[in-house]
Design brief:
Helix content is 35%, strand content 20%. By secondary structure, the chain is of the alpha/beta class. It has 2 domains: 2-60, DNA polymerase, domain 1; 65-333, TIM Barrel, CATH 3.20.20. Strand 9 (144-149), helix 5 (159-171) and strand 10 (180-184) form a beta-alpha-beta unit. Helix 4 packs across helix 5 and helix 9 runs parallel beside helix 10. The longest helix is centred in the C-terminal third of the chain and has 15 residues, at 226-240. The radius of gyration is 21 Å and the shape is elongated. The chain binds S-adenosyl-L-homocysteine. S-adenosyl-L-homocysteine is lined by residues 112, 114, 116-117, 150, 154, 183-185, 206, 247, 249, 280, 282-283, 285, 324-325.
């Protein structure tokens, strides 16, 4: 069965023509799938029974099936979706006021070996654009939506499907580029490619350490030199004007000392880009690391602020629903969640 999700209006028009239908039927399909978010051809009431049956014979809409939703009392929801090959991926939705942020996965597992992360080094395959967009369409509520590519996987190791997903979420689903964020471990070529894509999406870079040596201890694969990553960030800023976000997970006694903050502040100040550091309290897994104390995080933040860097501390949400990257999927793989 071929999947229609992940195709642009122009491509859907071609499919309509190939079935002997008028091109405008393709535009109707796009409206139903991306704007009205219907998941079956039967619901496309202006298509006619004949047309719907013809589509049904060859095509499917969304390749995802909702397997489980964990709902936290603070409103955070974590979805486990089943793919057509029986594999599972996770998506998190975090409501805040009139907005919600949906955090999507881009790969099945992740090939990057972050030693503190529950999804590290259990890699299956890249997700398709349909599987990425499907996560947004199935979890989206009726509020305005931000989408962050910050779930499981490294988006820039799946560039083709990532870029297609960004274009469709923007052009077809109607989410503004400024409400889309791609987060990377720092794949230099990927940052450069995104800079040339011509979309002003937000770029997040998971830095976690101000020096290559410490970074190498925390992240085991796909490492580029910090200087090269920051040069690419600079290019991104020059091309798009978007402020760069740096994510920094706070690991007690590992990367959270004042000397680290000083180093980080000076390093970032040596570039021309506008930036912002997001300190992430560590969501503890069985990795052996523990989260820095609130006082330590505050001191780190102050030190950066004194060096003239914008800093925020990420609010912890979804504790107790395995909201840390990869936790829910891992439990599923280990058979701790009944199917
Ligand atoms: N590969 C991309 C996107 C996925 S990870 C990247 O590295 O940016 C999304 C963010 O969550 C990263 O900054 C990652 O380091 C962080 N993260 C992973 N596990 C975490 C945990 N247990 N607690 C807090 N942050 C975590």
């Amino acid at each position: 069965m071929k999947t229609l999700l992940g195709l642009k209006t122009k491509e859907l028009e071609q499919i309509a023509l190939s079935l002997g239908l008028d091109a405008y039927r393709g535009r109707q399909l796009a409206q139903w799938m991306y704007r009205k978010r219907v998941t079956s051809f039967e619901a496309m009431t202006d298509l006619g029974k004949d047309t719907r049956e013809r589509l049904l014979q060859t095509y499917a809409i969304n390749p995802l099936k909702e397997k489980r939703v964990h709902q936290h009392q603070d409103g955070t929801a974590k979805y486990l979706f089943e793919l057509e090959d029986g594999e599972c991926i996770e998506t998190v939705k975090i409501p805040h006021g009139d907005w919600e942020t949906i955090c999507v996965s881009t790969q099945l597992g992740c090939p990057i070996g972050c030693t503190f992360c529950a999804s590290g080094l259990d890699y299956g395959r890249n997700l398709t654009a349909a599987e990425i967009i499907g996560q947004v369409l199935l979890s989206r509520g009726d509020t305005s939506t931000n989408v962050v590519f910050m779930g499981i996987g490294e988006p820039f190791l799946n560039r083709k499907e990532l870029f297609r997903s960004l274009k469709i979420l923007n052009g077809e689903v109607g989410i503004g580029a400024r409400h889309l964020t791609v987060s990377t471990i720092g794949i230099v070529e990927g940052i450069e490619n995104l800079a040339h894509l011509g979309m002003e999406v937000n770029l997040g870079i998971s830095l976690h350490a101000p020096q290559d040596e410490l970074r190498r201890r925390l992240i085991k694969t796909h490492l580029s030199r910090l200087r090269d990553i920051l040069k690419a960030a600079d290019l991104y800023f020059q091309k798009t004007g978007r402020r760069i976000s740096f994510e920094y997970v706070m690991l007690s006694g590992v990367n959270d000392l004042l000397k680290h903050a000083t180093h980080l502040g000076r390093l970032l100040k040596s570039f021309d880009f506008k930036c912002h550091v997001n300190l992430i309290p560590y969501n503890e897994t069985d990795s052996g690391y523990s989260s820095s104390s609130p006082a330590r995080i505050r001191a780190f933040q102050q030190c950066l602020e004194e060096l003239g860097i914008n800093v925020t501390v990420r609010q912890e949400r979804g504790k107790g629903i395995q909201a840390a990257c990869g936790q829910l999927r891992r439990q599923h793989l280990e058979g701790k969640i009944p199917s």
